Each structure stands twice: as structure tokens, then as C-alpha cells.
């Protein structure tokens, strides 16, 4: 019986894994490593992954483990010159005598290998091979102790902004490795501020041209679509999805349902990686807007702090560009004229039908969705009712369409049926809700598997997908799986949900933003969240970020004042959240007074300097005229 043929999907996944491994290893600067074992392992693993990325070799089912190992050895031999160059560039000053001897032996071994030939066709048993070189896999376990010696090369923006697969893979590898260093202090050395700005600017230009509802048509028989839910700044969940499902390609489209930033440690990293893929494959990577991608939510999630931790004084400018980029993100997609995806859900119509008993809660249509202005220049997205509904609405089990206690709507299975029927669709895949949102909703799926089937009606289904595994909200940790949906031809209406977990991930330690103790800095940012206002129904408290009047695109970040403004004495019996809200306002007023005083002093110093300069010029002019 002939051996089974390897499927194209399995082959593609193996190829992508090997390419990713090779580029990740290539990002490490071997000539500056301090540990001999690291160097030796990197050289060997690079050659293994290089050979593993050979499509013609992998797809041959005759290639047994023996043949693959022999071929790897052959590949090492053929690249012995490159290995020798790396070995000879090693910094011997950092080694002890024993390690120096090991490197010398390795050089001799590689030189000897270069003079031999190993043909897989002539080898039938592993014993026929020469004595194998000792290889120890050196992979950190996430404790941060083993990664301090690894030096990561900074990435530069490509000429003419033409991103390649190698560039994007290198970016992902660098960002992944930087997370294991458990520090963001060196982030700007790995990903320079100018590169991050270029990513956001270039992607914004592409996103701005897309419709509110992106149509994904022309799917071939061997293509498929991956729908990803909330990531909440969990970079390693995103990388896990790419590793399991494969990268975006001409035959594999990705739709991301929003909420890229969140309480996770790597919000900026997630957003930049997705922008890079969008720039490289704009037709095959669809980025939708989530409820986190608004100015109000970004402030509540400390997104500015995350960026300032990484880029210091340059952070506010990048933050402002990210906020503008959020406004360019489309709101929904329709896959193969059958599946509607969005972040939150359904929305009310802007029209009024007199025959409707409740005209204010009439269900909206795809035609109306295309007409709303998502790129509005206003600072507050709350003014756009339809936008809020798309981002914040949730399904429930009761029939009808009604207002929720926040910004969105609640809709029942009858509304799902109406929307699918009127739009000639078969399915809705939305996100927005994870295990935290469903914890108190016993009538809905608990999302612990990363997805739920919420409505099953005559015309189709409504599903929710959530992609942040092991999600944490406040002090509560949910041991949930993340999930993504796989849609395949012919009609793309029977999704396969793939669940997964990413447990061993690095945790970012708190970074000191400026001079002062970490406790003070943490308190500073906690005081800026204004959580007490939310409990009073105020979703947009006074902000610590102020657009400058002469250039609204530039954001001023107010600093924590050394002294807090003393207002009127508060009653002794004042309770929460009112006490916290007063404290919040007093600190904000003090920060504003401090900024005004600082600017007044600067202007005074400038005027004094100009006055002295003018007097000096007048003296020089008089002296010149007398000559």
C-alpha cells in the first residue's frame, strides 16, 4: 500500500511553524551571547528549522525520521562556512577555560564536517551516521532568568514601506522574545518609536478606505476564513492562534472582531502585530473595531500608560495616532454573502416607522450601517448611537429589542431571525463577552470554552467567540479556554470552533514611569481611572489627557501634582463613591494648576530671554551704524 499523502493544510502548518522558528532564532545576535550552550543550540536549531521550511522535502511521504535527520545533518554540512563564521565571531572574553575548549572542539568538528558528505539516499540506519554532535535544547521556561543574556537586534522600517513575510515574522519573534525579558524598559531599542509610528500611519491609510461593513467574497474551494474574538492585550494567545491555524495567506483570511487592547500586559504589541499583517495582506486580514478601541475605553484601560512605559516622552504622540487609527477600523464584515461578523451586535434603525409601536427601537439594516460616519473627528464616540450599539450590544434570551443599562442594546432570538432574514444571511459571529460578562447570566453560555451558541433560529445561528484564554478581571481569574472559529467552503456557515489555552506566559512587572517609588506611581495611575464615576452612571469622567488647542492631534499628559488642591471641607459622613470622586477631581485640578503655572513660568522666561536678545541686537545695530 502506498504511503498516505500529506494534506496541504498539514504541510502549510508545518512550513509556517518552521519559518517562524527559523526567523525567531535568526533574530538573536549570536556574536554577543555569553553562554556557550545558547550559541551551540541556536546554530543547530536554525539549520533544523531551515530544512523544515523546505516544502518539496516535507511533502514527500517517503521522508522518514531517519531520512529527515540525515538531511538535517547534510544541511548543516553545506552551511558549515556560515557556522564557522558565527563561531569565530564569538566573544571569548566571557568564557571560562572549559567553555573555551568546548568552542574550540566545536570549530574543529564543523571544519571536519565541511570536508565530508552525507547523502540520505545511502543511509538506511542511524548507526551509519557519524557520531552525532551533542545538542542541548536551550529554551527558557518563563522565569526570566535565562533570557537576560539574549541580545535582540532592533527592527527597522523597510524601504518604500513594503512589508514582507520575513519582516512581519521577525517583528512577531522580537516582540515575543521581549515579553520574556519581563521588562519594557528596552522596548524602544527593539522596536524604535519611528517604526511604531510608521506602522500605525501606514495601516490607518489602508483602513480609512474600507467600508463600514467589509465584504469578503471570491473565496475559492481550498480557502477558509478564521474569525478571532477578543484578545485583550494577550499577545501569546494571538501567537498561539497563528501557530495552530497558520498565518494569513491568499487561501486563509483572518477576521478579528476587535478588543485588541485590554487588561493584558501586551496591548500595544498585539495591536502593532495585527497592523503589520494588515499592511502586508490588506485583503486577507480584516480588523474590526471593538468596544476597547475608543478614547474612553483606552483611558480606562491605561493604554496611554502602557505606551509611555515603552516610549517615555514620545508615548503621548503614538497614543494619539493609535486613537485616530481606532476610528478608521471598520465595524463589521460579511463573509461569502452568508456570515455577518461584528464586535457587539445588532443596532437600532435611524429611521422612524409610524406603524411601529416602538419606533425608537426599530432594528437597523446593513444599508444603514454603511451610511454612518465612523471616522468622526469628535473626541467623544458616545454621541454616535449606532456606533455604540454595534460595539456594546449583547444578546439575551427574552424576545424583543430593548435598551441595556449601558451603551448598547439587548436583543432576543426574534431579532436575530429578523436580521438574518432581511439581510439574507445564515449566521452572526460576534464577540464582546467573555466568561466575566457571562458569570452572572445563567440563561446564556458561560464562555468557559471560548465560544457559545446563543440563538438558533429558522434562518441560522448567533454565536459568540472569545479568544483570550485564562482571562483575569480584577481579582478573579477565569480558567477559561480561548477559541476561534474556522469557516470553510462551500457555504462557510458551519463553523468549527477550536479551543485552546496558553498557560505559561510571562507577566509584566510594574514599571516606574518617572522619579518616585513604584507605590506612588501605581497610586497615580489608579487615581486617574475614575472608576467611582462609573457606578454613578458617568462613563466619561474628566480626563488626565488634554488635547492641545493649537493642535488637537497632540495629547498633553498631565503629571501627578506634588500637592493636592484643597477644596471645601468635605462632610465627615461622606460615603463612597462620592469621596473617591472628590479626591479624583481635586487631584486633577491640582495637576491642571501645576501645568498652567509651569507654562506661565516658561512663557515668562521666554519673554525675558527675548527682551534681553532684543536689547543686545539694538546695541549691535548702533555699533554697526557708527562704524
TrEMBL record:
Kindly give the Gene3D superfamilies that the UniProt entry links to this protein: 3.60.21.10
Q: What one GO molecular function would you report for this record? A: metal ion binding
Which parts of the chain span the membrane according to its record?
none
**SUPFAM superfamilies annotated for this entry?**
Metallo-dependent phosphatases
Cofactor section? Mn(2+)
- Per UniProt, residues of the Serine/threonine specific protein phosphatases domain are 191-492
Question: Per UniProt, which keywords does this protein have?
Answer: Manganese, Metal-binding
Q: Which InterPro entries match?
A: Calcineurin-like_PHP, Metallo-depent_PP-like, PPP_phosphatase, Ser/Thr-sp_prot-phosphatase
User: Which protein, by its recorded name, is this?
Assistant: Calcineurin-like metallo-phosphoesterase superfamily protein
Q: Please tell me the species this chain comes from.
A: Arabidopsis thaliana
Taxonomic lineage of the native organism: Eukaryota, Viridiplantae, Streptophyta, Embryophyta, Tracheophyta
Amino acid at each position: 500500500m502506498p504511503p498516505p499523502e500529506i494534506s496541504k493544510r498539514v504541510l502549510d502548518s508545518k512550513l509556517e511553524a518552521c519559518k517562524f522558528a527559523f526567523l525567531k532564532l535568526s533574530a538573536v545576535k549570536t556574536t554577543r551571547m555569553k553562554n556557550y550552550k545558547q550559541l551551540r543550540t541556536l546554530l543547530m536549531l536554525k539549520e533544523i528549522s531551515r530544512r523544515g521550511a523546505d516544502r518539496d522535502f516535507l511533502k514527500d511521504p517517503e521522508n522518514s525520521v531517519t531520512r529527515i535527520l540525515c538531511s538535517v545533518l547534510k544541511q548543516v554540512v553545506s552551511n558549515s562556512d556560515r557556522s564557522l563564521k558565527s563561531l569565530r565571531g564569538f566573544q571569548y572574553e566571557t568564557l571560562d577555560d572549559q567553555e573555551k575548549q568546548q568552542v574550540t572542539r566545536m570549530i574543529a568538528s564543523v571544519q571536519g564536517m565541511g570536508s565530508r558528505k552525507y547523502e540520505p539516499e545511502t543511509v538506511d540506519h542511524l548507526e551509519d551516521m557519524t557520531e552525532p554532535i551533542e545538542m542541548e535544547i536551550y529554551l527558557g521556561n518563563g522565569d526570566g532568568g535565562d533570557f537576560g543574556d539574549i541580545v535582540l537586534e532592533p527592527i527597522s522600517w523597510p524601504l518604500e514601506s513594503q512589508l514582507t513575510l520575513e519582516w512581519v515574522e521577525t517583528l512577531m519573534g522580537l516582540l515575543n522574545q521581549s515579553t520574556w525579558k519581563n521588562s519594557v524598559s528596552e522596548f524602544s531599542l527593539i522596536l524604535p518609536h519611528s517604526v511604531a509610528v510608521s506602522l500605525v500611519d501606514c495601516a490607518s491609510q489602508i483602513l480609512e478606505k474600507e467600508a463600514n461593513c467589509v465584504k469578503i467574497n471570491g473565496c475559492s474551494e481550498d480557502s477558509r476564513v478564521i474569525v478571532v474574538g477578543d484578545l485583550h492585550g494577550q499577545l501569546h494567545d494571538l501567537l498561539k492562534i497563528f501557530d495552530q491555524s497558520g498565518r494569513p495567506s491568499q487561501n486563509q483570511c483572518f477576521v478579528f472582531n476587535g478588543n485588541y487592547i485590554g487588561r493584558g500586559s501586551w496591548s500595544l504589541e498585539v495591536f502593532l502585530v495585527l497592523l503589520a499583517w494588515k499592511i502586508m495582506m490588506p485583503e486577507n486580514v480584516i480588523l474590526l473595531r471593538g468596544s476597547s478601541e475608543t478614547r474612553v475605553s483606552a483611558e480606562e484601560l491605561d493604554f496611554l500608560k502602557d505606551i509611555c512605559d515603552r516610549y517615555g516622552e514620545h508615548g503621548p504622540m503614538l497614543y494619539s495616532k493609535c486613537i485616530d487609527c481606532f476610528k478608521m477600523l471598520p465595524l463589521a464584515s460579511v463573509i461569502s454573502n452568508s456570515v455577518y461578523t461584528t464586535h457587539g451586535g445588532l443596532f437600532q434603525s435611524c429611521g422612524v416607522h409610524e406603524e411601529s409601536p416602538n419606533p425608537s427601537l426599530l432594528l437597523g439594516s446593513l444599508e444603514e450601517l454603511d451610511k454612518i460616519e465612523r471616522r468622526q473627528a469628535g473626541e467623544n464616540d458616545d454621541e454616535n448611537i449606532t456606533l455604540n450599539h454595534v460595539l456594546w450590544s449583547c444578546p439575551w434570551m427574552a424576545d424583543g429589542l430593548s435598551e441595556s443599562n449601558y451603551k448598547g442594546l439587548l436583543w432576543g432570538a426574534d431579532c436575530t431571525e429578523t436580521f438574518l432574514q432581511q439581510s439574507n444571511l445564515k449566521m452572526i459571529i460576534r464577540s464582546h463577552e467573555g466568561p466575566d460578562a457571562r458569570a452572572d447570566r445563567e440563561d446564556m453560555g458561560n464562555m468557559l470554552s471560548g465560544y457559545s451558541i446563543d440563538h438558533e433560529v429558522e434562518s441560522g445561528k448567533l454565536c459568540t467567540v472569545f479568544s483570550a484564554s485564562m482571562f483575569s478581571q480584577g481579582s478573579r481569574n477565569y480558567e477559561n479556554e480561548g477559541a476561534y472559529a474556522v469557516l470553510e467552503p462551500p457555504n462557510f456557515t458551519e463553523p468549527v470552533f477550536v479551543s485552546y489555552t496558553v498557560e505559561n506566559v510571562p507577566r509584566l512587572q510594574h514599571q516606574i514611569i518617572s522619579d518616585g517609588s513604584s507605590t506612588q506611581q501605581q497610586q497615580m495611575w489608579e487615581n486617574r481611572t475614575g472608576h467611582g464615576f462609573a457606578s454613578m452612571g458617568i462613563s466619561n469622567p474628566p480626563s488626565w489627557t488634554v488635547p492641545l488647542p493649537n493642535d488637537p492631534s497632540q495629547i498633553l499628559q498631565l503629571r501627578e501634582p506634588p500637592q493636592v488642591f484643597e477644596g471645601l471641607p468635605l462632610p465627615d459622613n461622606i460615603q463612597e463613591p462620592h469621596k473617591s470622586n472628590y479626591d479624583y477631581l481635586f487631584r486633577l485640578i491640582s495637576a491642571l494648576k501645576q501645568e498652567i503655572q509651569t507654562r506661565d513660568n516658561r512663557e515668562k522666561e521666554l519673554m525675558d530671554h527675548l527682551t534681553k536678545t532684543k536689547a543686545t541686537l539694538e546695541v549691535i545695530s548702533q555699533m554697526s551704524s557708527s562704524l
